[in-house]
Amino acid sequence: AAGVIQSPRHLIKEKRETATLKCYPIPRHDTVYWYQQGPGQDPQFLISFYEKMQSDKGSIPDRFSAQQFSDYHSELNMSSLELGDSALYFCASSLEGGVPDTQYFGPGTRLTVL
Amino acid sequence: AQSVTQLDSHVSVSEGTPVLLRCNYSSSYSPSLFWYVQHPNKGLQLLLKYTSAATLVKGINGFEAEFKKSETSFHLTKPSAHMSDAAEYFCVVSASKAGGTSYGKLTFGQGTILTVHP
To answer: Between chain A's N and C termini, which has fewer beta carbons within 10 Å?
Structure first.
């Protein structure tokens, strides 16, 4: 079965640079969530989209923005990168109105800021 | 508001012995509860979920969990540990809106690292 795809899997950036992370949900899933997992930390919710509209917002810095496109894929844009942004970024998808709450996670993008 | 507390940061068992990972939750609404497993440098895999159906939930790889509303607990168990079970386990809560529709955002516990000795 198709899973959530994230690209790139690894990304190395310098401080103050920008980064774009991409997420392709499971086919027919209409909701996408982004989570950030710092070293030794539990994942923290950043933002979510349902039917291309932002549905919820968590602890996402103002330097970050995200959107969901017409094909339901989502992109997380990160600017003015800081050392503390180094983390594993997960995308998850679900089908709103389907099996409630079941989010399927992608493999993550590991971002390293030098 | 919702929160999850995993009572043990590390659990160590011998192969073939039972596993118990403890989780307590707090939620303003009827919660949906999950256990996810994360192997080193890997993504998050869903083990099982509770969504107000049967209180004893069976998951993959022989794991199960029991929802106890009176104790606000959702402990994860397995009768016999296997070496491949060594990983980090997250108890997760998702609050449901009144009326039962998922609110979506997941709140993770701090994680329990399970070590399995030969």
So the answer is: N
